[in-house]
Amino acid sequence: MADLDTQVLVCGGGPVGLVLTLELASRGVPCAIVNESETVATHPQGNTMNARTMEHYRRLGLSGAVREMGLPPDHPTDLTYVTRLSGIEIARFRMPSSKEKMAPGSPDLKVTPELLHRVSQMLVENILKKRADALPAADVRFGWRLTGFTQHSDHVEAKLEEAKSGRTETLRCAYLVGCDGARSTVRRALGIRYAGESAEDRTYMMGRMQSIYIEAPGIYDVQANPISFHLKVLNPENRSAFITLDGKGKFLVFTKLAPGEEVSAERGREIARSQIGADVPVKVISAKPWTAGNALVTDRYGEGRVFLAGDAVHLFTPTGGFGMNTGIDDAANLGWKLAAVVQGWGGSRPPRQL
pLDDT tens digits, residue range 84-99? Predict the structure, then answer.
């Protein structure tokens, strides 16, 4: 075995990469994680942690901290269809608050002690990174990117670059894992391609969408119906969705981008006000494009000593946070297996059998 700088290099510092880092470092496996951005995400997405994800966080000792973020315990989690937020309620699917679900004697607790929780990925990433920073076995490098790698019979040689300074470094590891999203550098370097159905730009939740992060506490003053977690707004002018982030006035708004239309904070503000149906102050914190309607997966999860996880290997419409939650399970599954191999308690086996 070549002299190694670390056992596992994780490329990508989103929730999948951070959870993989925690899975390894909490077991004492030396690992490094690189992420081109110097910070965790600042725009909300993946706004639901499902029960299995919460179970993984419980095992890592983080479920309590995660539950302190996001929707307040007593906030309803209803899904409601309305003409506008200040308009007519069309339909409502009632769902219990976290407080109701977690109450002693709740039938939901017979299934698992860690139930689904409504909280944005960006808030959870802060918790995950803080824990990773504190683990001695983890070398956390935000502000660094992977520029290339070469596989050898007993190790991987990775080329790294510090984004701000341009400083380069070569790092030798036993395994490399690409948790670097839909435009994965690692997947492309391996020549692995997605297969399945790509989104056609047709209608709402099919093709180019705009995600608008707003602060508008005045919504609660004009909302005509009982509060909900997820509001779907349908009227002749537009179609949108409002997702409640904190129960205090921060929302994530989804709208369809017209052909040729670019993301615009001002246009996002106009749409939000129109869909609210009342003249309330709306602060646009950030706005981003995204693509809905994908149903894609690769034909393999890696090659040799290089693996893929999360959106790098499967990509589908992020309704309900399914993409992120599936990626967390990828990381939990791969993490203990890599630990078993590098620490020797999993036996000697070819990397492809992981």
Answer: 999 999 999 999 999 9
Residues 144 and 260 in one domain: no
Q: Are residues 48 and 132 in the same domain?
A: yes
Same domain, 193 and 334: yes
Is the residue at 109 inside a domain?
no
Give pLDDT tens digits for 185-197: 999 999 999 999 8
What pLDDT was estimated at residue 351?
56
Asked if 172 and 207 sit in the same domain, the reply is no
Q: Considering only CA atoms, which of 107, 50, 35 is closest in space to residue 326?
A: 50
**239 and 340 belong to one structural domain:** no
**Residue 247: helix, strand or coil by DSSP?**
coil
Q: What is the mean pLDDT of residues 2-8?
A: 93
User: Buried b / exposed e across 327-338, counting CB within 10 Å, b at 16+?
Assistant: bbbbbbebbebb
3-state percent helix, strand, coil for the chain, nearest multiple of 5: 30, 30, 40
> Which domain-ending residue is among 248, 276, 292?
292
Question: N- to C-terminal Cα distance for the chain?
Answer: 19
Q: How far apart are CA 191 and CA 180, in angstroms?
A: 15
Of the pLDDT bands very low, low, confident and very high (cuts 50, 70, 90), residue 208 is: confident
Instruction: Identify whether residues 35 and 182 lie together within a single domain.
Output: yes
Does residue 168 sit in the same domain as residue 145? yes
Mean pLDDT over residues 313-342, rounded?
91
Residues 6 or more apart in contact with residue 225 via CB below 8 angstroms? 80, 82, 89, 92
Domain count, the chain: 2
CATH code for position 193: 3.50.50.60
Hey, is 214 helix, strand or coil? strand
* Closest-CA residue to 92 (of 102, 77, 104): 77
Contacts of 110 (CB under 8 A, 6+ apart): none
Query: Tell me, what's the pLDDT at 180?
Result: 97
218 near 225, Cβ under 8 Å?
A: no
